[in-house]
Design brief:
With 270 residues, the protein is of the alpha/beta class. The chain has one domain: Rossmann fold (3-Layer(aba) Sandwich), CATH 3.40.50. Helices cover 34% and strands 17% of the residues. It has 9 helices and 11 strands. The strands form 2 sheets. The chain has a 7-stranded mixed beta sheet with strand order 7-6-5-1-2-11-10, sandwiched between helices. Helix 1 links the parallel strand 1 and strand 2. It is globular.
């Protein structure tokens, strides 16, 4: 996807989309954009807070890079408050489980999610929340759990038994949010995860995201053929610079939108 386009269109012509999450969202972000473009003949205003290992409440670190907590980052200052009735914002909250492995309590994490939901409800957004992979984690052996924990969260000493209990409790509370208007809570089938219990199988990505985003009732999303592309991760990792990050101990600020696509869609990353 190339960064060309112009800002000539009036603001009200853009369809606002808010995407909040961590590794699955980051890895599949270009795929999701292609699904959106194939589903609605509209220019999009994309606001996203994402990143591998991203926390919904605290600064999170991956190697030399750190990003602020999603519920406390600058995205909430930039999302427009007023939208026309036919441009009602769409919002997605996914990859919620990282904070459990960081050692945060269920109450704390749910408070961060609820804060995001409350702010999205103020702009009358249609919200999708994906549940944590409870079935996938329940099938984990101790060996698989330790391999996953040491690979992705080496500093955390959470036990498998404790993790399973907290995943169940957090999912139960997230599910209760689905009783509210304009909130869809989505459960991901366990067989769509592979050896890694928290990341989707590569072969299932397009089908999975179609199922998730179908809760926005896009007209063509279930029928349109979208191909995975092996180089998608390079796009998300190298070309989308967040508004604020810390890298090698220094703080960096990047103007937003960070990219404008050929069709005029604007992408702002926080």
């Amino acid at each position: 996807m190339s960064s060309t386009g112009s800002l000539n269109c009036q603001e009200q012509l853009y369809q606002p989309v808010i995407l909040l999450g961590a590794s699955n969202l980051t890895r599949d972000f270009p795929l999701i954009i292609r699904l959106l473009q194939a589903s609605i003949e509209s220019q999009f205003e994309i606001y996203t807070a994402m990143g591998h290992g991203r926390s919904f409440g605290n600064w999170s670190h991956l190697l030399y890079r750190a990003l602020p907590g999603i519920s406390k980052c600058k995205i909430w200052d930039e999302i427009p408050e007023n939208n026309s009735e036919n441009r009602k914002p769409f919002a997605l909250l996914t990859d919620i489980g990282n904070d459990l492995i960081y050692g945060q309590s269920v109450d704390t994490i749910f408070g961060w999610i609820e804060s995001c939901v409350n702010q999205l409800q103020k702009i009358d957004a249609r919200i999708i929340i994906t549940l944590l992979p409870e079935e996938s984690i329940s099938q984990l052996s101790t060996i698989r759990f330790e391999l996953t924990r040491r690979l992705f969260f080496p500093k955390n000493k959470t036990s498998l038994t404790d993790l399973k209990q907290r995943v169940h409790l957090l999912n139960r509370r997230l599910s209760e949010l689905g009783q509210q208007d304009q909130i869809a809570v989505v459960k991901i089938p366990s067989d769509w995860y592979g050896f890694d219990p928290i990341h989707y199988r590569y072969s299932q990505r397009a089908t999975l995201w179609k199922r998730i985003l179908s809760h926005w009732d896009f007209p063509f999303i279930s029928n349109h053929s979208i191909q995975n592309r092996w180089f998608d991760f390079l796009y998300s990792f190298y070309y989308l610079q967040p508004a604020l990050k810390r890298q090698w101990g220094k703080t960096y600020h990047s103007p937003q939108p960070t990219q404008i696509l050929d069709d005029g869609t604007r992408i702002s990353v926080f």
